[in-house]
Recover the amino acids of this structure.
């Protein structure tokens, strides 16, 4: 029997953001997994890449699959770069490149800890926030491409499954607020996780929209 463990942040630990009486991601995942399969939520709202080691320490001995959705809060910590004023496009690109390199190094180290468990693993991209200001939304999406490129490269280099949340969560209905998944979005995420655990499409495939 499979036992899927979720690691990461509020993309999975979204219970406080969904509407009253609506299911969170872990409840939705449990509902779509085959009978007898288990799912455990180790992800924690507000977590960053540095917190994954602590979540790994709580992974049960019978875990069969790991799924990681992390990096959004690390990206938010760097969000100030979007509003910085520079004298040239080159200077702006240098600033963004520095953010990307810090992010990629942190992600690589985090993923190495996860892969040390030697379990089938999937990682998620960071979806595009639904900020109400259209200018901020556009700039954030452009900057986020650099960080998702880092996630994608590390996933490919490690041979893990990649679940692209940018494509799965493609509607405003998928969001409870600008940065958290709603019950609607959570259901789509849960289907993707279940398909991964069942041996569905592998890396770079858009799973269970």
């Amino acid at each position: 029997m499979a036992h899927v463990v979720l690691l990461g942040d509020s993309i999975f630990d979204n219970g406080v953001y969904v509407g009253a009486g609506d299911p969170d991601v872990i409840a939705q995942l449990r509902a779509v997994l085959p009978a007898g399969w288990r799912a455990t939520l180790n992800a924690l709202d507000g977590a960053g890449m540095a917190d994954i080691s602590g979540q790994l320490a709580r992974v049960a001995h019978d875990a069969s699959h790991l799924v990681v959705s992390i990096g959004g809060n690390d990206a938010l910590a760097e969000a100030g770069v979007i509003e910085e004023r520079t004298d040239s496009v080159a200077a702006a690109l240098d600033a963004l490149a520095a953010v990307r390199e810090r992010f990629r190094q942190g992600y690589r180290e985090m993923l190495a800890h996860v892969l040390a468990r030697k379990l089938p693993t999937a990682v998620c991209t960071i979806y595009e926030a639904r900020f109400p200001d259209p200018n901020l939304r556009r700039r954030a999406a452009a900057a986020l491409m650099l960080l998702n490129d880092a996630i994608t490269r590390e996933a490919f280099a490690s041979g893990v499954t990649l679940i692209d949340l940018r494509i799965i969560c493609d509607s405003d209905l998928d969001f409870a607020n600008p940065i958290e998944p709603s019950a609607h979005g959570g259901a789509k995420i849960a289907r993707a996780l279940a398909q991964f655990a069942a041996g569905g499409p592998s890396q770079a495939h858009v799973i269970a929209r």
